[in-house]
Amino acid sequence: MITYPHNPPAEPGPIRVTMRAHKVAAMNTSPFTFGQEVFAWDGERWALDAALPPMREAEAEAWIAWRLALRGVVGTFHFGDPMRATPRGTVTGAPVVDGGGQTGATLATRGWDGELLAGDNIQIGSGSSARLYKVLADAATDSDGEAALEIFPRLREGPADGAPIVTSNPVGLFRMADNDWSWDHEGAGIYGLSFRAVEAL
User: How confident is the model at residue 44, as a pLDDT?
Assistant: First the structure.
């Protein structure tokens, strides 16, 4: 029986991934002075486009079956940025959330030593609560093994105190961006596949 999250085949992986960050904000510009008034709301999420390499039938049908098993926007799956599977910074120890119920764009952490660099990805939660975040500024631990991380997107659900922070192969929870999907194949038996997804919230 298929259950969700239902993760995609491990191989072959995408040859191109376009990560997109969505932020809910608006700006009014005065037609007389060009003065600007900016409104920012809390809504932030990930979206992505993934292109798979040309595949023969056996590999392609595994991907096709996975995509159809999601039944459009119904099912969910884990996905991470393949270019940021490991941090550029150095992390030793086991980083965890320092204090429950945190919200906003800053995450307090403890229990580790080293540095995360701007652009590194982290994960909080697992299963249907997995969330993918990007570190926005270099952050090094202090003498107590603590560090505050500026992240995107903002924390939506306050993680529990002591929740593990994943720095190796971090993923988030995604679903397809729409209900329709198509694939093509040539007479030589080569398939072309791609998909679009948004963060599952």
Answer: 96
